[in-house]
Task: structure prediction
Amino acid sequence: MLEKVLASVLAGVGAIWFAASWNLASGAAGYGGAFPLGLSALLVALSLLLLVTSRGVRGTPAVSPPPGTGTAGNAKDWNGTVAAAWLVALLGGYAIFFDLLGFVLVTLLFGAVYLRLLHRASWKASLVTSVLLTLGGYLVFRVLLGVPLPTGLLVGEIFG
Amino acid sequence: MSGIEGLLGGFVIALQPVNLLWALLGVTVGTLIGVLPGVGPVSGIALLIPLTYGLNPISGIILLAGVYYGAMYGGSTTAILAGIPGESSSVMTAVDGYEMTKQGRAGVALGISAFGSFIAGTVGVLLLTLFAPLISRWALKLGPPEFFLLMCLAFSLVAALTGDSFVKGLISAVLGLLLSTVGIDIFSGEPRFTMDLIGLIDGIEFLVVAIAVFAVADVIENVQKGLSPLPVLKPVPLRQMMPGWNDWKASIGAILRATGLGFVVGALPGAGATIASFMSYGVEKSLSREPWRFGRGAIEGVAAAESANNAASSGAMVPLITLGIPGSGSTAVLLGAFILFGIRPGPLLFEQHPDVAWGLIASMYVGNLMLLILNLPLIGLFVQVIRLPYATLSLLILMLSLLGVFANAASSFGLVLLVFFGACGWILRRAEFPMPPLLLGLVLGGLTEKTFRQAMLLSDDGLLIFVKSPLSTALTICLGAVFAYGAYRFLRSRMGSGEAAQPGT
Result:
């Protein structure tokens, strides 16, 4: 099932890329579009081939079955997918709030929530690990490598 | 500069105390990465690249190359002691290695794998020393059409040999190539496919995608699966690790054969260490007078698998440094690192940067010796390290990913891209799309397009330039053969007869 959905999405991406390359190829840039034009056409063709030959749910599944069988296995797989989705959301939050809240605050929060929510560590262990890793990250990247880590617009406003 | 002169010069660089230190750090971190089942060599190297920014290019590359071949050594430890391969290239080591552990011969298994790795690694570097300058000189004669075809051959071989579906491998490579077209067009200077986002004007940074689809996607995948904790392992005393006369007699032939086979297989794009170890194990089993012993603790099985994967990692350096064309995920990341340091490996490397080329090769001799001396006594320590809970390890990986990308991109837009590609990589991997071809496509995309467009400018008859010279015709025929083989395998597996999955590299 996932394979079919992905093959369709990739065919769509290929088609959009093809259209964009077509505009480039027909514009003043000339050859600038030829290479991506060929590639995107190849992407559409390969994705359609995958879609047509994908067996999906029928017969042998194209994608490996989840560990365990029956409803217990499905439930485990579903929980795993939810956990993974949470992690993606957490990482997204990190990226979005990095400038606003600053490195220290956002990393502390991210670490603690990650350990507590996705690994069921105790609040105490989550906080201690998170503080240590934030400190380590600061020392290595800010102090040692001189990377200008953001202090945070919000923190900057409050503390001037 | 002759080979010997160059190598001596290389040793002068590699033996400088500071470079020795970087090599030591590299091989130690590499061994740790090899030992830890949650971190692969590609993620390991990619995560360390931002930490090497302050170094001069030679030291940085010596460090990262140390990580690369150190990981090959490390992978065997958990394979032998717990039957859990740290890397896919150690899968065959686990078969007989773990059996030997169950029979109380863990020490000898670890010993022979370390000695086998050392012999294979050193002979591999020796072969690299002999062949690299020759191939480099030959490659200087290649024109844009031949280079373009060589790269297409690399993409299709990697697609055909990693993962079990040729079409998925090709899609992955095409996606990587398409991503490489984002940003300013090198020929016309016009921005392409940037969706008016300023962050995309300079293109999609290779490092962001490498860290995303390997390190970040690894963690997402492990969180989804729920990684089970490793069993507590007993350290083995050093004196038990020395193989006896009979062990040597049984293994030395296997080590030497695996070295030769591993080097050649490693030098081919796509095949790499995993396939080399599978093949060498198969060869030893078929040559053995007692094939039934394989799978029941045959020491030559361990020796063959471990020697092959180390020789392959030296072999894989040949196309990387002579042609600038990597053949696997880990060498693609190494190429990315070279480029970030402002050095483009390829036929001109030995002429333009002999210090880097020979310094790297010399450091590989030194690194192999360091690994042999360090590895056995430190196994007790490494066994302790794998008890680090995955929750902490994964948080460390995520932080290194996020901060490394920020250090590289110097903007939080890089972080957004990291999360986006991490999620995409996870989904693609769930549907069994191999990631090495994507990385290869992205890192070679610029050069592929450049050589294609140069070939088109040179050509009076369009695509016919690819069958004009004897070499380009031969390459086109090889490309056709790989496609035919890939298509045959793809159709056979889809038509219902099924086929065992090929191991990835």
User: Anything to note?
Assistant: Chain B touches chain A through 65 residues (CB under 8 Å).
